[in-house]
Amino acid sequence: MNIAPGKNAASTIPFDQARVDRLMEEAGIDVLLATSKHNTQYLLGGYKFIFFAAMDAIGHSRYLPIVVYEKGGPDHAAYIGNRMEGGEHQNNPFWTPTLHAACWGTLDAANLAVEHLRKIGKTGARIGIEPGFLPSDAYTLIRKALPDAKLIDATDMLERMRAIKTDAELEKLRVASELITDSMLATIAWAREGTTKTDIIEQLRREETNRGVHFEYCLLTLGASHNRAASPQAWKQGEVLSIDSGGNYHGYIGDLCRMGILGEPDAELEDLLAEVETVQQAAFSKVKPGTLGGDMISHAEGVLKKSKVAAYTDFFAHGMGLITHEAPFLMTNHPVTYEGTYAAKPLEKNMVLSVETTMLHPTRGFIKLEDTVAVTEAGYVMFGDRGRGWNRGGVL
């Protein structure tokens, strides 16, 4: 399917065009070739093709969606997708004036992108690409077909584009967090003495799926162990449980951690979780527009340093949205490998953060809280703000 340009895209463009144009100008980019599923989803206003939601591979190649966007020229925008996406367009038309629903692999998609760039007169332009999400065969084809073009890494520009969430995005992140919290609390209540880690993870998968969340992962510990992988280990009376899960709601990530106990927590466990909560609250206290990201981090780390559990406890915070680690990037290589480029920048309204404090206690086990907060005009709001104490297992 090839729909030629004609309709006025300016009235239907689903993102802040002025902001995206400004970011492109600052990055020295004339036209974008977005090829990651998360950035094409963003630029298409939330659309993601369900057929390739879980796996990209097909035949001898893979699915390669491409959004072509020219700075200041939404009427020249195009979406290049799989042949089956013509049906998606019939039901819910894409905003881009040009649609090529014609591809089965990387090379035909790259060829159509080159063809479109020729049509809009951008063969010698500064073209923003995503190196981490552009297969080598497609890159080689584009490089050879457009020898006069300058290919620029647009990764940082696209991350900055997604850093400030819209109200619709915030709502999806809120719902994702609420549903995952509900699922984790229901799973803890369901599990009982003798229930294995593998069984608990499968139960959580069912709980999230039944609530409309696409299950992505569960990291689980029982007892004194710090091992979070699935296993036949069974929950025993008096042991702690740490359940950390990520799920996807309409493309947006919920990622939280809650604690369970089989029986009643003793005084030591109450005290240990309180230490974790103190660090979390220290971080929350600095979340507001204008605070430097690094100042929030250093304040929480300073509180942790004074704690009696500091020797085996870690603090971490990161941005989240369409993917689990995105702008604002607040810490360098801790633990994910990227630069903390937002540490010296102020937090802004509608940024979303995951804040986590993790204790690897030598005898009591893995004790952690992970929370999702959105920066508001007055400070912050938490998503899924329930079950942050000791939740009892085996009560259902």
UniProtKB/TrEMBL annotation:
Please give the Pfam families that the UniProt record associates with this protein.
Creatinase_N, Peptidase_M24
PANTHER family named in the record: AMINOPEPTIDASE, AMINOPEPTIDASE YPDF
Name of this chain's protein = Xaa-Pro peptidase family protein
Q: Which residues form the Peptidase M24 domain?
A: 171-377
Q: Where are the transmembrane segments?
A: none
Organism, per UniProt?
A: Mesorhizobium shangrilense
Ranges for domain Creatinase N-terminal: 19-164
Taxonomic classification, please? Bacteria, Pseudomonadati, Pseudomonadota, Alphaproteobacteria, Hyphomicrobiales
Q: Which domain of life is it from?
A: Bacteria
